Amino acid sequence: MPDNRLSMSYTHRAALIGCLSGLAIIAVAPLFLDVYLTNILIRTLFVAAVVMTVDILWGYTGVLTFGQSAFFGIGAYACGLIFTHYGFGPGWALAALAVALGTAAIVAAAVGWLAFFHGSSPLYSSIITLALPIVLTQIIYSGGSFTGSSSGLSGFPTYYWDLKVWFWIAGGFLVLTTTAGWLLVRSDFGRVLIAIRENEERSAYLGIPVSRIKTMLMVFAGMVASVAGFGYAAFSNVVAPEMAGFQLGTELLIWTALGGRATLLGPVFAAIGIDTISSWLSGAMPFVWKLLTGVAFVLVIVLLPRGLAPLIGALWRKLRPKHVPKTHAIRLNPAPAGRMLQASFGDAPPLCLSQVSRRYGSLQVLRDVNLDAHGTELLGIIGPNGAGKTTLMRCISDGNERTGGAVRVNNVEIARGSPQDIVGLGVGRSFQNTNLFDTLTVGECLQLARYRIDGAKLFDRRETVSLPQPALDILKTTGLDKMLAEETRNLSHGMKRGLELAMVLATEPSVLLLDEPTAGLTRPERMAIGAVLTRLTQEFGLCIMLIEHDLDFVRAICNRVVVLHQGAILMEGTVEEVVASDLVKAAYTGLQKEAVA
Q1: Which H/E stretch holds residue 202?
Q2: What residue stretches are annotated with the ABC transporter domain (predicted)?
Q3: Per mean pLDDT, which of 194-208, 464-478, 516-530 is the most reliable?
Q4: Non-local CB neighbours of 410 within 8 Å, separated by 6+ positions
Q5: What residues contact 131, with CB distance under 8 A and at least 6 apart?
Q6: What is the SS3 assignment for 29-47?
Q7: What is the architecture, at CATH level 2, of domain 347-596?
């Protein structure tokens, strides 16, 4: 059995053991707890499930959300309103649960559409989720007798089961949802979430639909929170605006931070412990306990910014047996020949630019750029600093960048498409500065690059990754094929450059945009990269557009050179023609004189 299968079976076995152990504890705990503590824990267990969703959104995906309390309130009020005004019974309970799930899904989808559009900032999404519980609370206040206004609803019929039954329901719900969440964040899809958190821009330019993933995650997290709210209301027989309010949303974030972001179990145990203790302290010290919680939050943020769980985890790793199976590097396979980089785009060039312009207010960065790039061509883009070279690449790889003109990729107009949409048309792009995922391994980065083609498993991890031959060649040339288990932050600059190029090639592009791919590399490394690029054009028919300042490197590999100056094409031709041009010399010399003046 391959090592990776061993590690994955260990992960699933650990999840099964943890789930069964949790269910066993839930089954016997009511036999040893008094009525008061059991009553408190039932409520706390429902809330802890919501905290788990906050950690997946914030800790793993980087979405700072205040809105999970709103979805909790939606579930609670779906239960209270239907049981109060329409009826009670198994059918009505199922109907109320369906309303809770459906309403939460619709509201979460609307929030995702508003908050996660391409180009939105993390601050903007936080403001949207911050407004959600405030708006929902105001709707409840304005509902009059139907929603109970500020007094809420109470005394509606519900299932008056024994406390032990409710404890089993709440505890079982928490254990099962947490187990599912634990498997999710350790799966291939969990690595996608981490990639979005660490480098959303790079994720989009690998073809990962960032906005769609965030919205889907918001929908499922909202549905889990609504079920928790439904159970909470059905047990407590009371719903109030505070259940959907901003204060609860903030407390969910505090518990997540105290427990330890991106640990999943840390926030869950923090929620259970803090909320249970708070229930006692709120009676003895109704105001001081909130101050104590706030002080504890500040101390943890200052002294332990990652929360308590990582500290406990570090101690556990020192004490645990040394023979615990570890995750091994994934294995590389060549991609099927039929899915190599060969592109079919008819008679049209793979890349056509017509009157492309880019303006920032009164500053005109690009002016009416007309350019065709052909298959099997390695096109060099040169020019003084500030000529608009990188801006030109942004206009090709992101439909929202240009302010005028048209860009066609493989005979398809990119319109206002997002980077992930344009990757689907066949465009791959590297950046001027290395743009990777620091905490992910080389192998995980390569798997991310294959997301558009191979997808990602939700509750499992692949043991292999299939790459086109040029990507395998880059890995072999740079020695990265021997370092698949190494985190990218530990790589040298040259290896990071090689990995980024391999990741771009893993998306199987037909148009390759490279922004100074050899910057900072040694001469042998530059020559090795140049040989691979030449092979890409000659053997695989790629169209490569290259920004480069090293004219010797450009002369060695480029078929044609375009000179940009002040946002317009100054000249195009062979390297020799361009270097010998008095017009080009005057442009560079004039720029230097302006800099001296």
Answers
A1: helix 200-204
A2: 351-591
A3: 194-208
A4: 343, 345, 348, 350, 425, 426, 510, 511
A5: none
A6: HHHCCCHHHHHHHHHHHHH
A7: 3-Layer(aba) Sandwich (3.40)
**Contact of 248 with 69, CB cutoff 8 Å:** yes
CA separation for the pair 526, 549 (Å, rounded): 13
Strand (E) or helix (H) holding 334: strand 331-334
Check whether 350 has a pLDDT greater than 80: yes
Q: How far apart are CA 483 and CA 476, in angstroms?
A: 10
Q: Are 97 and 226 in contact (CB under 8 A)?
A: no
* pLDDT band at residue 224 using 50, 70 and 90 as cut-offs: very high
472: helix, strand or coil? helix
What angle, 0 to 180 degrees and rounded to 10, lies between the N-to-C axes of helices 469-478 and 523-540? Answer: 170
With 70 as the cut, is the pLDDT of residue 112 above it? yes
> What residue segments make up the domains of the chain, in order of their start?
3-245, 347-596
Mean pLDDT of the 297-313 span: 73
Fold topology of 3-245? ABC transporter involved in vitamin B12 uptake, BtuC (1.10.3470)
- 56-70 average pLDDT score: 94
Helices (H), 387-481: 389-397, 419-425, 442-449, 451-454, 469-478
Average pLDDT over residues 314-338: 65
550 dihedral zone (left: phi>0; alpha: psi -120 to 50; beta): beta
Whether the CA torsion 482, 486, 490, 494 is positive or negative: it is positive
Percent of the chain past pLDDT 90, that is, above it, reads 56
Across the beta sheet with 404-409, what order do the strands follow? 363-373, 351-360, 404-409, 412-413
Query: β-strands 351-360, 363-373: how paired?
Result: antiparallel
pLDDT at position 285 is 67
Is the Cα torsion angle 216, 217, 218, 219 positive or negative in sign?
positive
CA 104 to CA 133: how far, in whole Å? 13
